[in-house]
Amino acid sequence: MVSDEIPLDEAPEHFFDQQKWSEFVDCFDNRQAALQQINRPEPGIIGFYRRQIANSAGPMTAKAQREEHTAELGKALVADFKERLSNEEIVATGSSSLAVARVTIPSERWPELWPNFAADKAGGKELTFAKVRVSKPASRRTSSVRFLEECIAWLQQRQLAGESCRKVLEGEASNRFGSALKIA
């Protein structure tokens, strides 16, 4: 596990809007109960009936309105989290039955996956990842940025030294930077 990766069950404190997350947790007895509530999408029929009661005049109206607000808040928190994963503002890794080692969960998979925060899993109809860890991608890109800067500096030095033949530079660059350098 990369040191800046955190388990999915800790993600709300790091990647959710903290004001909304705090408001959501306050609707439950404890944090674990809040996590359990957002672990799976709510069946549409439950929301439909709750909205019917919330929009009616009766003894259960106020309770249904509070529950509707809570459900909408939970959906918004998860939707924002998944959008950030889809946009690669957050990167997730996990273990899949399709791979031997931990893999990066592709950003294009997140629209069909649902995070199970309490169990550190993410799953959909076709694919499930266990032991999900999340992190900000900046730390992952830092080494790539340094590598790119090193390549550019080396090429500039070679140019100042008078070398401009592409084939010579490609060979020397391959020797110097190894397999990390991909020449197009």
Low-pLDDT residue spans: none
- Annotation, overall tally of beta strands: 6
Radius of gyration using CA atoms only: 24 Å
* Element-level helix/strand string: EHHHHHEEEEEHH
Helix count? 7
Provide the number of structural domains.
Answer: 2
**Global mean pLDDT:** 85
**What portion of the residues fall into strands of 2 or more residues?**
5-15%
Indicate the structural class.
Answer: alpha+beta
Shape: elongated
Polypeptide structure, described:
With 184 residues, this protein is an alpha+beta fold. The protein folds into 2 domains: 6-136, no CATH class; 139-180. The chain contains 7 helices and 6 strands; from the N terminus they run βαααααβββββαα.
Present the secondary structure layout.
Elements lengths: L5 E2 L3 H5 L2 H8 L5 H7 L6 H11 L6 H26 L4 E6 L6 E2 L9 E3 L4 E3 L4 E8 L2 H23 L5 H12 L7
Antiparallel strand pairs: 1-6, 2-3, 2-6, 4-5, 5-6
Helix pairs in contact: 4-5
